[in-house]
Give the backbone structure.
Amino acid sequence: MKKFNTTAVCIPSKHYMVDISKQVREIKKLVDNGEYITMNRARQYGKTTTLAALRRELENDYLVISLDFQGISQGGFSTEENFVQAFCRLFQKSPTAYDAMPEEIRDRVETYIHLKSDDRVKLDELFLVLGRWCAISSKKIVLFIDEVDSAANNQVFLDFLSQLRDSYIRRDIEDTPAFYSVILAGVTDIKHLKSKMREEADAKENSPWNIAADFAIDMSLSEDGIKGMLDEYEADHHTGMNTEGMARLIREYTNGYPFLVSRICQIIDQRMLPDTFDSLKDSWTENGVEEAVKYIISEKNTLFDSLMGKVRSFENFRKQLKRILFQGETGAFLPDNREQEQLIMYGFIVNDHNRIAVANRIFEMRLYNFFIGESRFTEELSGDANDHKPEFIKDGELNVPLIMKRFIQTQEYIRNLKDEEAERRFIEDEGREKFLTYLSPIINGVGTFSVEERNRDRRRMDVVIHYRGRRYIIELKIWHGDRYNAIGEKQIIDYLDSYGLDTGYLLSFNFNKTKESGVEEVHIGGKKIYEGIV
């Protein structure tokens, strides 16, 4: 029986997986054109699985050599001799490559593998051998190298890239034998590998891999693709799930990030019984997806270890992400902005119709939890929230008006500030952070919250709380007068309609001291809205 897989390569005969044949065919077009390609995608974005599928697609027409630079230790990049030796060992570890070598090529590779410590061999000698192999091979040779990040900060690797570039250029100009196509797969764009090699004053953008073709193929998993995977699962397990609705919901949470799609399905399939649900029928529901998401945003895994390690290490990442999350700075996508480029490269943000946005709702929730955990407001707010938590929850439901009221009371000291500009900064820059920090311990372990990208800006932010199968919509906004408030009321009514809800909540941060703070209930268009003023 197949299962969902979130480690290493997904194999169609063993694992439930989304059909990626369309993406593979698009990459094959580049290979057929003889392109040299860099496949840069975030960690656990399906690069290795895609390369495996591409190899199967190509192997009838080409000799495909697939290597993985994780098989080379740091010592293998210390000198040219060590690299040549380590590179040839990769051929030896690959039965497809080794068995396909003509005898004269295999003999030379064996010679390099058994180099003695005082032997000297250079990269250009290796490339002469590789060129000879390309010349006498009955099929055009395509080279895959996965995990090129393993070579980061190594001058020898950059020299290797230069040799590849030189062979590519001479192939087309002088008709010199060379690899027909090369694909380097990893997270880090090679020009960033180069920039890290140099002192800041000497950093350059002219990478030795500037021959690479534009790789604009969307590797995210589509809603239709996810549905196809769930249809296959349903044919085996007969849960009665609505595969179309489940695929839509999973896509909404993940934005098609391959690891997250598979992880949600894996948790529903393997982790929910019998502690959370009585049957697979109960698990494969909207509640099951929400439970799986809650599990993911609190678990330790290699993906989040990598992502959060970078947030901890790079202050510029932290500042930019925090501005996006709490201040609504979903600004214009700037293709020449190094900070945005790196955030996209590592998978934190995406270019959403030329606006930057956090890559998916799960990353967003994980980042909110991280920033709330280290917020300077945590100590002052968590204590009050925990003290009153029993009052906030009754019969499994949240008393959101009371949460708003208590939060407002904890912030009354703001009214005593003499510095109006400092108060304005709190309202506009810190108010949302404070409310979410207050909310977090109340729902922690039972519910989650997310922020709707489509409605987030510097003036307003819609928070959706998911708690025991119920949704609560809270709009956080900056007070800009009664007219703007009326617009906000209409917007939340429309939003409630889209969710089929009758009750919503508005929390306005107001620096006009003539406006009285508190919470009141209003009825508009058949909807009940609790409006709070801080």
Q: What stands out?
A: Confidence is low (pLDDT under 50) at residues 195-205.
